[in-house]
Design brief:
Blueprint lengths: L4 E6 L5 H12 L16 E2 L3 H8 L8 H16 L6 E5 L17 E8 L2 H12 L3 H8 L5 E2 L8 E2 L3 H9 L6 E5 H6 L1 H12 L5 H10 L2 H11 L20 H4 L2 H17 L5
Parallel strand pairs: 1-3, 1-4, 2-3, 4-7
Antiparallel strand pairs: 5-6
Helix pairs in contact: 1-9, 2-3, 4-5, 6-12, 8-9
Length: 276
């Protein structure tokens, strides 16, 4: 069994879906923008409820967290069973081991691409995505036990605080990792998305790269969502794709909340270029 999983990992609302849409357009060499509802063609999520029902052989209660954790290894086995060299898998899990079950086991892992976003901006997108106010969002993303509860379509997601999540993925691992900053995806897309392709061992064709970047732009995906909807949009969110900007926190985030985030995450933010 090959160690074929390449994790596309991030804290929620940090650019994971954007990267996946880009990769889908590039890898499928789309000549017109690929439907955002077809992104799963080049990868899958690791908490898709039907995967857990399938390996259990029945409909299970996803609120039974112990059972879901016991089934996780079989779900990951199912992903790598195709014997492909690479299986792209989206995850929002921190690299932790609840109940001594490693969520990101080395034995299935080829490498990881970790997408990082300034938490001052991420928390605004997080609040909108989950239908909560920014103050509650800050409370959640600074909590060491933050998690997404299971839904009808998704198993629980173990997040932890933003800083703990970053540290878990950047700690030592016996496999390669590539760190991509959301802000660099905005400012230098050719270089940054090119790094993702190189990490996967995919030749970078400049024309194809530029086309895939254009096809995954926020204008394009927002128009698609408005026209066709997006199957990954949660019920509590008016829309999945926001403005896709950086530094929105400077005008939209209460200064007291910004100070709270910096007080909690300052060291990690400084390490990755978000504080002077």
């Amino acid at each position: 069994m090959k160690r074929s999983i390449v994790w596309l990992a991030s804290y929620p609302k940090s650019g994971n879906t954007w990267l996946r849409i880009f990769l889908a357009n590039y890898l499928l060499d789309a000549k017109a923008p690929l439907s955002i509802n077809q992104v799963h063609k080049v990868g899958m999520g690791d908490t898709v409820a039907r995967s857990y029902h399938m390996v259990a052989g029945r409909q299970i209660d996803l609120t039974d967290l112990g059972l879901v954790l016991r089934l996780r290894d079989r779900v990951l086995q199912g992903i790598v069973a195709n014997n492909a060299d690479i299986n792209l898998v989206k995850t929002h899990h921190a690299r932790v081991s609840p109940d001594r079950v490693p969520l990101i086991p080395d034995r299935y892992t080829r490498s990881a691409i970790y997408i990082l976003r300034n938490p001052l901006d991420m928390v605004l997108s997080y609040a909108r995505h989950y239908g909560i106010d920014p103050q509650e969002a800050v409370t959640l993303v600074t909590h060491p036990d933050n998690a997404n509860a299971p839904t009808a379509t998704s198993a629980a997601q173990y997040l932890g605080s933003w800083s703990d999540h970053v540290k878990s993925w950047m700690a030592y691992a016996p496999w390669p990792r590539l760190l991509l900053r959301y802000e660099d995806m905005l400012d230098t897309p050719e270089e940054t998305f090119g790094k993702a392709l190189a990490h996967l061992g995919v030749p970078v064709d400049p024309e194809r790269l530029a086309r895939a970047i254009r096809f995954s732009s926020f204008d394009e995906v927002s128009q698609q969502e408005a026209r066709d909807g997006f199957i990954e949009r949660p019920e509590q969110s008016a829309k999945f794709f926001g403005k896709g900007q950086k530094d929105q926190w400077k005008t939209d985030l209460d200064p007291a909340l910004a100070e709270r985030i910096v007080a909690e995450f300052g060291d990690t933010m400084k390490r990755y270029g978000y504080l002077e």
